[in-house]
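The protein record quoted in full:
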Amino acid sequence: MDTLLQFVNLVLHIDKFLGVFIHQYGAWVYAVLFLIVFCETGLVVLPFLPGDSLLFIGGAFAATHEMNLGLLLTLLIVAAITGNTVNYLIGRAIGPKVFNTRIRGLDRFLDRAALEKTHNFYERHGGKTIVLARFIPVVRTFAPFVAGVSQMSMQRFQLFNIAGALFWVLLLVLLGFFFGNIPFIRQYLNVIVLVGIGAAIVPVLIGGVWKMLRKPDGGGVRKPNGG
């Protein structure tokens, strides 16, 4: 519980933590930001890292010349692209092996038909999914992994991976650069971060709950015996 509270406190006051780190460790902040963005986008076990907040706050610090804007943008774009690529390659490598396993009892938990549907979906809509997922916490961590599992082609994946990384990093860092130091925004940054996270996650959660609550079609109404 203490660890969770510390993490929530870090997310809500990321600007203060980052400012202290810059003053104490200087240029090492670039390595830290690179590592956080890379891990959030590259490792499915770390979807909770505050990527959006860090991009925005990094831009705000670049506006006060505490960080170099060009270097920051370059490193974060590289981190976002390589992170997604590693995630995709992991999914591509282990996905077919998991779904083709002959371990007794595991078959009931694996839906090969669902995997095939996912593959077909990514072939038709995977590009939009990879780009839009960048702006949805948690989803952006799993999207490249699922793309790899569904065997989306590398060329198609990388095209939208690079486009999504550029759009995501440039938009959020530059928003922070131009607006992050406005007194009102700086004062209520923690509220803005929460609203932004909620606006991204809540629709996804609602959609998931809706799908869980929906009854399967079942192929129509079952007739009574003898009818």
Remarks:
- Residues 2-209 form one domain.
- The longest helix spans residues 69-99.
